[in-house]
């Protein structure tokens, strides 16, 4: 396995490849990290994927990793949706670069943990080229989640730095990427969910509800959607879940 630290445009990333085929077109995954994490924290996913012959791109999200601006956790949390939407926008840059460099066989898959899983679900609503996805303790109910986050901050005495009009505009923007409101855009593409039932950071129930609703869209190809739930797990993906997710992406991206 080869790990390269690179800059694609303004985006710092780790570029992981198998030992063979470094310069050739390979099945590829772009994998997003979680809130207050960084690209290096998902190298175990990249290792498993590279062992299966895939190329992996691990970007740093805005305000994270090499893009840190020294903000504290509260400041970064208040910009959570800006970070998510920026990652969705930057996925188009990564996609273009993969093709311009001739690095991707077919089209890439996308995955992520926590905030990265949230990003993945939003990306599925706007990029029809995504071939397969793995959503690890993520959520697609953007509007509902944002409303809950704002209510939580206000209950703790924080004065949110946005006006009522700005709040409505933000929720209208988030609705564009909300999985529940854009289910037909998934279009039967393979998607794997993993979620711990005891997760209090990204609650289990809304993601499971989305899965049950999406199953209606997948009636013609039920094998393309899987929800792995672990009863005692909280906000930490089990090794079993990690292995299943990487196997899923490999299975649906490799053509030979």
TrEMBL record:
Keywords: Hydrolase. Residues 96-254 form the Peptidase S9 prolyl oligopeptidase catalytic domain. InterPro entries: AB_hydrolase_fold (IPR029058), FrsA_esterase (IPR050261), Peptidase_S9_cat (IPR001375). The keyword Hydrolase applies. It comes from Planomicrobium stackebrandtii. PANTHER family: DIENELACTONE HYDROLASE DOMAIN-CONTAINING PROTEIN-RELATED, POLYKETIDE TRANSFERASE AF380. It holds the Pfam family Peptidase_S9. This is Fermentation-respiration switch protein FrsA (DUF1100 family).
């Amino acid at each position: 396995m080869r790990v390269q630290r690179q800059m694609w445009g303004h985006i710092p990333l780790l570029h992981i490849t198998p030992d063979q085929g470094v310069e050739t077109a390979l099945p590829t995954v772009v994998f997003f990290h979680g809130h207050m994490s960084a690209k290096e924290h998902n190298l175990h996913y990249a290792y498993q994927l590279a062992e299966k012959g895939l190329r992996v791109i691990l970007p740093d999200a805005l305000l994270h990793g090499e893009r840190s601006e020294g903000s504290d956790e509260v400041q970064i949390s208040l910009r959570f949706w800006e970070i998510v939407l920026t990652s969705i926008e930057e996925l188009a840059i990564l996609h273009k670069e993969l093709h311009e460099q001739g690095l991707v066989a077919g089209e890439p898959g996308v995955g992520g943990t926590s905030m990265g899983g949230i990003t993945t679900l939003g990306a599925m609503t706007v990029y029809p080229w995504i071939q397969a996805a793995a959503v690890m303790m993520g959520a697609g109910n953007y509007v509902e989640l944002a409303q809950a986050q704002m209510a939580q901050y206000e209950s703790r005495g924080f004065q949110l730095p946005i006006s009522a009009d700005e709040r409505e505009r933000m929720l209208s923007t988030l609705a564009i990427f909300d999985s529940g409101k854009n289910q037909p855009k998934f279009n039967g593409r393979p998607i794997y969910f993993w979620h711990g039932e005891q997760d209090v950071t990204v609650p289990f129930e809304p993601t499971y509800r989305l899965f049950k609703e999406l199953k209606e869209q997948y009636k013609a190809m039920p094998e393309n959607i899987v929800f792995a739930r672990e009863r005692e797990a909280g906000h930490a993906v089990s090794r079993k879940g990690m292995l299943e997710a990487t196997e899923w992406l490999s299975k649906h991206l490799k053509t030979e």
